[in-house]
Amino acid sequence: MVVLEAPTESKMAPPHHFDWDINDTNIPKVSEFDPFVEWTDGHCRFVYPVEQEEAKRHSSGWAMRNTNNHNVNILKKSCLGVLMCSLRCTLDGGAKVHLRPAICDKARKKQQGRPCPNKSCSGRLEVMQCRGHCGYPVTHFWRHTEHAIFFQAKGVHDHPRPEAKSTAEARRSLTGRGLTSTLPGQTSHRSLHPRPLHHHHNPRISGNKRPFLLLSLPRPLGRVF
DNA sequence: AATTGCGGGGATT
DNA sequence: AATCCCCGCAATT
Question: Got a GO cellular component term for this one (predicted)?
Fold first, then answer.
């Protein structure tokens, strides 16, 4: 990484391939922005407009939690992995169970040990941790300037994607009604689910986002000067 | 009740 | 000093 750190001559670099790192003291201005990428993976960087709502929220398809890096200018988040069935069962539709870990520690602890949502499975939910960045969770970095929101990711996720945030929220509002507590060692099967809740994977999302079309961007290009 | 960001503080290298 | 983690707090949704 690096470049353009020349203490004296920081202004001038070749107009082309202007490189930047989230930690640079001088971050370049950009004239073009990237479309928001929900499922970033690998070492990548994007620049979003300050009006971009997802970017403003520092959101991601991956379940990311804030981690303190003691730097007020750069927000750091690390991946929480994915909630899986301990028996790795397969749902009727052929899909696997990979739910979204709650960001809140307390809520996530409650998720673990709950019965697998597959009613014909006796497994329990457990967190598969992310170790995609040198044995540590994948990290995301966010940095705001007057003109743009800079994003940088480090590491390659070594686990399946969790369900999308919108899907997790939808289920939460369905399932979280009334009595909540179901303890791991308990017999209270709260399979009150009116309908099978597999199809997490594309019922509604097609309307407002196209998850796959934008993923084929080979890399960020043509946006910097 | 869960999300998000902040920040103190501990452990390690 | 840097990096990583855990925890509690507060504002927000």
Answer: nucleus
Q: Are the C-beta atoms of residues A197 and A117 closer than 8 Å to each other? A: yes
The answer to whether A153 and A138 have CB atoms below 8 angstroms apart is: yes
User: What SS3 class is residue A65?
Assistant: strand
Nearest of A111, A127, A94, A122 to residue A175 by alpha carbon? A111
Q: What is the mean pLDDT of residues A181-194?
A: 36
Nearest-CA neighbor of A71 among A10, A6, A22, A105? A22
Nearest nucleotide (C1') to alpha carbon of A180: B1
Mean pLDDT of the A126-142 span: 93
pLDDT(A220) > 90: no
Q: Kindly report the number of other CB atoms within 10 A of residue A54's CB atom.
A: 16
- Section A69-84 average pLDDT: 94
Using C1' positions and the CA of A56, the closest nucleotide is: B4
What are the structure tokens assigned to A206, written together? 């097609």
pLDDT over 50 (residue A70): yes
Strand locations in chain A, DSSP E?
Answer: 44-49, 64-67, 74-79, 82-85, 98-99, 125-128, 139-144, 148-154
- Using CA atoms of A181, A99, A157, A57 in order, give the dihedral in degrees to the nearest 10: -80
CA nearest to nucleotide B4 C1': residue? A66
| Residue ranges in A93-183 assigned as alpha helix (H) | 105-111, 165-175
